[in-house]
Amino acid sequence: MVIDSRRVITLARRGIVPLQLAPGTSVECTLGCLWLTEDASQQDIVLEPGDAWKVSRAGTVVVSALRESVFSVREATPQPEPTLALRWRRRFAGTRRPALVPASA
């Protein structure tokens, strides 16, 4: 079963919305122009229709609309914890057992 964890948000020109987002969450502009500022970052991001950006750290992302805008926020999908057998297989991948040499008579 696939669950779409996407939210669609509309902002009027000069509208501002602060969002608490997790790392890996993507913000995609579908209409207008957005200015994004990530908490504790010196970089500002400008998105136009078709542009997307992924959050790099947990915290607040302030989204400002430079003109009337529509954007979507898609939560990062958590990866399932690998099984014990898979972890062991990954750990020993590439290691080989020594070849058995027949004993001489």
The coarse overall form would be: rod-shaped
What's the SSE pattern? EEEEEEH
Average pLDDT level: 84
Tell how many strands the DSSP assignment holds: 6
Provide the low-confidence segments as ranges. Answer: none
Approximately how much helix is present in the residues? under 10%
CATH C-level name of the domain at 6-78: Mainly Beta
**SSE class:** mainly beta
- Write the CATH fold name of the domain at 6-78: Jelly Rolls
Mind describing the biggest β-sheet?
A: 6 strands, antiparallel
Task: Quote the distance from N terminus to C terminus.
Answer: 62 Å
CATH H-level superfamily title of the domain at 6-78: Jelly Rolls
What is the second-level CATH architecture of the domain at 6-78?
Sandwich
Model description:
By secondary structure, the protein is mainly beta. The protein has a domain at 6-78: Jelly Rolls (Sandwich). Helices cover 8% and strands 46% of the residues. It is built from 1 helix and 6 strands. It has one helix spanning 84-91, and strands at residues 6-11, 16-21, 26-38, 44-47, 52-54, 59-74. Strands 1, 2, 3, 4, 5 and 6 form a 6-stranded antiparallel sheet that branches. Strand 3 (26-38) and strand 4 form a beta hairpin. The longest helix has 8 residues, at 84-91. The N and C termini lie far apart (62 Å). The model has no long low-confidence stretch (mean pLDDT 84).
Question: What's the topology here?
Answer:
Elements (H helix, E strand, L loop, with lengths): L5 E6 L4 E6 L4 E13 L5 E4 L4 E3 L4 E16 L9 H8 L14
Antiparallel strand pairs: 1-6, 2-6, 3-4, 3-5, 3-6
